[in-house]
Write a structure and sequence with these properties.
Layout (H helix, E strand, L loop, with lengths): L1 H27 L4 H21 L5 H20 L5 H47 L10 H6 L6 H15 L7
Helix pairs in contact: 1-2, 1-6, 2-4, 3-4, 4-6
Length: 174
């Protein structure tokens, strides 16, 4: 009973932190390290409560998933393709997903990121077409639109909420 309550509290707090990260990235294009650290710090409490509840978490698989995502993300960060906050956030969400939930997590993040990017491209294109003077000088429309940053923390939060839903017992099919 207590273990189940600890799990539910950890899932709810983690969901709140993911929403905070998404909002921060959407508004400021920044994900604070303390948010990712807090999400990572909640996982041991959740995993310990799972063990007491009778269905232990796969610690090794979770650590491997988080490390694998961090390694790939670090390489992408070094060539300038993703932001550091996005790498850290996705790595700690992968920790919660584990190896078994990693592929569904990445599929949901990719789909949400694609939809987010299309929405941002449409909004920025419409903005530049309405006010051509707002476009950076000397850049064609397509380049000005595609050079805009994307708050990918929003897509990562959607994937994280999907993962938390899976851990809470909700079954979604992809």
């Amino acid at each position: 009973m207590i273990a189940s309550s600890v799990q539910q509290i950890a899932l709810l707090v983690c969901a709140g932190l993911l929403l905070w990260a998404a909002t921060s990235d959407l508004i400021h294009f920044r994900i604070a390290n303390r948010v990712s650290l807090a999400i990572a710090g909640l996982y041991p409490a959740y995993a310990a409560a799972s063990w007491f509840a009778g269905w232990p978490a796969d610690w090794a698989g979770s650590l491997i998933a988080g490390a694998l995502v961090f390694a790939v993300g670090f390489a992408l960060f070094n060539v300038g393709l993703v932001g550091g906050g996005d790498v850290k956030l996705l790595s700690v969400v992968a920790l919660w997903a584990g190896l078994g939930g990693l592929m569904p997590l990445l599929l949901v993040v990719g789909a949400a990121g694609g939809l987010l990017s299309l929405a941002l491209i449409a909004a920025k294109t419409a903005s530049y077409l309405r006010r051509p003077a707002s476009r950076p000088a000397g850049l064609p429309l397509w380049r000005a639109v595609l050079q805009q940053p994307a708050p990918y923390g929003v897509a990562i939060a959607v994937g994280g909420l999907f993962t938390l839903g899976q851990l809470a017992g909700y079954r979604f099919t992809l």
